[in-house]
């Protein structure tokens, strides 16, 4: 059963509470059928997560921006490189099978919808995170992923990206399996840098991705 915090977090990530939406304790409590205390506690946690921010009229869902994309990827580029390095050094036979399995799914689904490929892509990267066997690192990467979920587009929407991304993934997986930690770190960082640049380009070329006017949740 989802907690109040999880319900609100999932609602923000899925877009049920659009960016800029004012979050009013009384209204949220009535909608979720709980008292204002768990709402207050959940909003405090969401503010710490960076999904909620304080505006002139109180708490609101954090707006999306190219600056945030840069901030997220500045950190993710470093962490993904570290995760790949650790995966190359520490992976087990089970980890290897998982990484190769998700790589195989990406290959088999090259013609699938961008959203399908994006889902498989996330699992491929998670298999690398877990292969590094560092819980703190996994936790940080999962938190960053939550922020990216707020952006309703994927680099797989760009023509040719599915093919180029697969080749990057294939080379990365090979470096990890061969236990070439330095190469794995370099390839992972490069892969994330390319993804960042594509996302920023998509953002700049499509005005519809910009956030709408502030709404109030009542």
Describe the protein in words.
The protein is mainly alpha-helical. The protein has two domains: 4-63, Arc Repressor Mutant, subunit A, CATH 1.10.10; 70-207, Up-down Bundle (Four Helix Bundle (Hemerythrin (Met), subunit A)), CATH 1.20.120. 68% of the residues lie in helices and 6% in strands. The protein has nine helices and four strands; from the N terminus they run αβααββααααααβ. The chain has helices at residues 4-14, 25-32, 36-49, 66-90, 93-108, 114-131, 135-149, 161-177, 181-205, and strands at residues 22-23, 52-55, 58-61, 216-217. The strands form two sheets. The chain has a two-stranded parallel ribbon with strand order 1-4. A two-stranded antiparallel ribbon has the order 2-3. A hairpin with a 2-residue loop joins strand 2 and strand 3. Helix 8 runs antiparallel to helix 9. The model is unreliable at 212-218 (pLDDT under 50).
């Amino acid at each position: 059963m989802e907690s109040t915090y999880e319900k609100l977090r999932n609602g923000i990530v899925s877009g049920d509470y659009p960016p800029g939406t004012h979050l009013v304790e009384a209204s949220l409590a009535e909608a979720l059928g709980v008292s204002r205390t768990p709402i207050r506690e959940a909003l405090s946690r969401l503010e710490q997560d960076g999904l909620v921010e304080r505006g002139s009229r109180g708490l609101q869902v954090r707006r999306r921006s190219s600056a945030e994309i840069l901030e997220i990827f500045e950190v993710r580029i470093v962490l993904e490189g570290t995760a790949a390095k650790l995966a190359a050094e520490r992976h087990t036979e089970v980890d290897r099978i998982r990484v190769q399995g998700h790589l195989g799914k990406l290959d088999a689904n090259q013609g699938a919808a961008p959203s399908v490929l994006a889902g498989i892509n996330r699992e491929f990267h998670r298999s690398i995170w877990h292969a590094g066997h560092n819980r703190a690192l996994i936790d940080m990467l999962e938190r960053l992923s939550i922020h990216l979920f707020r952006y309703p587009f994927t680099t797989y929407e760009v023509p040719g990206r599915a093919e180029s991304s697969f080749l990057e993934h294939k080379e990365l997986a090979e470096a990890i399996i061969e236990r070439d930690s330095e190469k794995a770190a370099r390839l992972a960082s490069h892969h994330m840098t390319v993804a960042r640049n594509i996302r920023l380009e998509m953002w700049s070329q499509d005005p519809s991705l910009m956030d709408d006017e502030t709404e109030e949740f009542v």
